[in-house]
Automatic annotation (TrEMBL):
Task of the protein: Part of the ABC transporter FtsEX involved in cellular division. Important for assembly or stability of the septal ring.
GO biological process: amino acid transport
CDD domains for this protein: ABC_MetN_methionine_transporter
GO cellular component: plasma membrane
Entries under InterPro entries matching the protein: AAA+_ATPase, ABC_transporter-like_ATP-bd, ABC_transporter-like_CS, ACT-like_dom_sf, MetN_ABC, MetN_ABC_transporter-like, NIL_domain, P-loop_NTPase
Similarity comment: family membership: Belongs to the ABC transporter superfamily.
Protein name: Cell division ATP-binding protein FtsE
Classification via SUPFAM superfamilies: ACT-like, P-loop containing nucleoside triphosphate hydrolases
UniProt keyword Transmembrane, yes or no: no
Species, as recorded: Rhodoferax fermentans
GO molecular function: ATP binding; ATP hydrolysis activity
Residue ranges of every copy of the ABC transporter domain listed in the record: 2-241
Length: 348
């Protein structure tokens, strides 16, 4: 559905040009919710605006639904853009127009008949739960309601793709949840492909099917959300996940490990960090390895969370036993789909 090939984007700037995107390759299949996450200045906004050519890349190709947008004339591009709706962090509503008139605007711009506009806007306002507020002005509604107007307006021309530029960053957590639930509903009901950019892992965790991590203008890691959460490869990804699911051991646990080391220096064993997902999170894997491999396992720290209805858990355990048995247990856990990172206790 969306294909970006070797996208580079350079802004003219003083004293030097800014190379904001550096060779981005992305594939977003139809019907997917694809999240791009990164820190401030990483290039997220630059990237999302390339997808509808609000930013024209300095180099590279942008294909949406098979059409190479970079090769279209201005008129062709205007019509291709109807397939791509967009919502914004600060909603971008016209303050002098009512809720109804804001949603009607894209239909007026393509000269739809007034009766068609009336019907379509009523339908959209119903979809986003704002029918009752159709005569209010933006100043008379809440942030979450404004974003609902933004969503209705973005859907007016029946796009195939919806781009969300930090769409929930100005909203509180509760309102964020309800907007993300609405996006998920639209994605399911209409098969709409959604690309969203965010700096919050919470948003990715709640709604995205797949995620790409952008850092200094390049995609450094991507994959299914559960896969990236259970086995992040890059430091930046770990630190972003850490904000909602701490990956670092708390100080109290490290103190406990030091205490174990000083009390039993001869049999230190290993510190195992285990990440489970889906069904694995509920299987009695630990009691199984204790039995099979005769290990002594002491749980130091753990947490279980939910990623879009799938369980996700992480555990830090202190494992002691014969070293061949310990290695066999680690291999067994890995075979069962658990991501295992192990360290000698003395190296913690
Ligand atoms: N119009 C512009 N002219 C010059 N430089 C720009 C322009 N827009 C963005 N940049 C620079 O490009 C880089 C990427 O910016 P971009 O806004 O895409 O990042 P971002 O990840 O969306 O950041 P944020 O989360 O803070 O909005 C930054 O170094 C930024 O300063």
């Amino acid at each position: 559905m969306i294909e970006l090939d070797n996208i580079h984007l350079t802004y003219p700037g003083h004293p030097a040009p800014v190379h904001a995107l550096r060779g981005i390759d992305l594939r977003v299949p139809a019907g997917e919710i694809f999240g791009v996450i990164g820190r401030s200045g990483a290039g997220k906004s630059s990237l999302i605006r390339v997808i509808n050519l609000l930013n024209r890349p300095t180099q590279g190709k942008v294909r949406v639904n098979g059409a190479d947008l970079t090769a279209l004339s201005q008129t062709e591009l205007r019509s291709a853009r109807h397939q791509v709706g967009m919502i914004f962090q600060h909603f971008n509503l016209l303050s002098s127009r009512t809720v109804f008139e804001n949603v009607a605007l894209p239909l007026e711009l393509v000269h739809e008949r007034p009766d068609v506009i009336q019907r379509r806007v009523d339908e959209l306002l119903d979809l986003v739960g704002l029918y009752e507020l159709r005569d209010r002005y933006p100043a008379q509604i809440s942030g979450g309601q404004k974003q609902r107007v933004g969503i209705a307006r973005a859907l007016a021309n029946n796009p195939k793709v919806l781009l969300c530029d930090e769409a929930t960053s100005a909203l509180d957590p509760e309102t964020t949840r309800s907007i993300l639930a609405l996006l998920r509903q639209i994605n399911r009901d209409f098969g709409l492909t959604i690309v969203l950019i965010t700096h919050q892992m919470q948003v990715i965790k709640q709604v995205a099917d797949r995620v790409a991590v952008i850092d200094a203008g390049a995609i450094v890691e991507q994959g299914a959300v559960m896969e990236v959460f259970t086995n992040p490869q890059q430091t930046i990804t770990r630190s972003l996940i850490d904000e909602i699911l701490p990956q670092e051991l708390p100080e109290s646990v490290i103190a406990r490990i030091r205490q174990l080391m000083s009390s039993e220096p001869s049999n230190q064993g290993q510190l195992l960090r285990l990440a489970f997902s889906g069904e694995d999170a509920t299987k009695p894997l630990l009691s199984d390895v204790i039995r099979r491999f005769g290990l002594d396992i002491n749980i130091l720290h753990g947490q279980v969370d939910d990623i879009q209805g799938q369980l996700f858990g992480s555990l830090a355990v202190h494992a002691r036993g014969a070293s061949d048995q310990l290695n066999a247990a680690i291999a067994h856990l890995r075979e069962a789909g658990v991501v295992v990172h192990n360290k000698e206790l003395s190296h913690v």
